[in-house]
Amino acid sequence: MQSLGTRRVNHQNDAVAVAVAGAASTLPLYRSAPPLEVRLEDFEAFAVDRLRVLKAISDGLSRGKKPEEMKNLVDELLKTHMSHPKPSEAVNKDVISHFVLRLVYCRTEDLRKWFLSMETTLFRYRFKRESAEAQRALMADFNLPYKAVNTAEFESVKDKLGQVARSIGQPLLTADAIFYKVPFEDVPELVAGRRVYIHRGNAYVAMNQVVSLVVTQFRSFLSKALILTNRKWTSSIKEQEKDRLTPIVEVLSTSYLGPDYSQPRESAEISLKDIDHLAKSSFPLCMRHLYDKLKEDHHLKHGGRMQLGLFLKGVGLKLDDALAFWRAEFSQKVGAERFEKEYAYNIRHNYGREGKRTDYTPFSCQKVISSTPGVGDHHGCPFRHFSEENLRAALGGMGVGNRGMDDIIDKVRNRHYQVACTLTFEAVHGSSCDAGINHPNQYFIDSQKILQSKNQPTT
Ligand code: SF4
Predict the structure, then answer these.
(1) Which residue has a Cα nearest atom 3 of ligand 1?
(2) Domain range spanning residue 150?
(3) Is 72 inside a domain boundary?
(4) pLDDT computed for residue 440 by the predictor
(5) How far is C-alpha 161 from the chain's CA centre?
(6) What CA–CA distance (Å, rounded) separates 229 from 130?
(7) Ligand 1: which of 62, 261, 310, 381 to mutate, most ligand atoms within 8 Å of CB?
(8) Which sign, positive or negative, has the C-alpha torsion 223, 225, 231, 235?
(9) pLDDT tier at 6 (50, 70, 90 boundaries)?
(10) Do both 135 and 158 map to the same domain?
């Protein structure tokens, strides 16, 4: 079993003092890479688990979840992906996974921006979960230069503080309430939200608001650290680790994290006669578009045949039925003989019956979205590749109403294609999809579950 020695992991961040956790807290500040032996398998597995958390946070934010919903989401994600039966191992996993992803996400401006934003959000919600005592310990670890307001000063501004607290629905002030006096420019979000009393250039920040101070520090520290890590990555780590860590790092930022759907679920099998009906009820827009084009033109180019063919295999179309399905369409255009000669091989190939006998995997949303369809191609993701006009028409054809349509288009304009697809799923099915859409085959399976639970005839 391979191990990553301490020396190697420390390449990326060897100059910062260790402060893994405050005395009463398990929330690390990630000041330096951990002096730990890390197995190569853990290096990747821990990073993948953290990535699941960050991606779900990103999805929650782009879907406009409220703070309370985000809090519950983060709690659930930490429990599902970051826990460990041994608390000390959970802290190690937390720190290691952060540093691996720091390497993965330091490499371009866009990657750094995304990672910084998601890690800061995660830190914010985790800080809020801590006890007041642990929060004070964390503040001390940050060496924040702010002093708590003394009793005499507190008495002199108590009425004003009470007014602000009432106006934002905070509990009444008690005699032992703790406030920090900080330059107002250090808490821009509290000032913008009129959530603090400001006097002579200072904001009076209540203990339950110090999260803003700490998060600002965390963000600024991490932002600088990512730039430093990037320099080290480019100047040495990438080359030194080219046979070991570099391939893992390079693949992690684009990896799809869900099931591969190469095998249909047990009991899931669809037959030729079902496809037409299923395409209307349960295909995501990308597959529905390919299906409609195939029916219209009796032909699809290679990219389209791969995208739709593997999807159909994943939802349970057996090889013989797949051959019959494609033959019925293509032979209308190219004739049965040419179909057998030029196209049947590729279909058998997709099912692992020809060539290297690899059982090919249906494409994830990430893969479909990042494809580059050319002229005459119909594959790709309509949310990314259609014009707005064509997308509106296609969504209308799926039964999406005007209000839902505007929300979806708004997400597309902000390049949140999977969120747009999730909203489409919810509009079409009248049911929520909290996990978000990550794979066309997941869209199909979730759709079937909903339709079956409504007792509609689905197959
Ligand atoms: Fe297909 Fe995924 Fe795009 Fe939805 S988001 S249309 S499932 S590729």
Answers:
(1) 381
(2) 142-210
(3) yes
(4) 96
(5) 39
(6) 29
(7) 381
(8) negative
(9) very low
(10) no
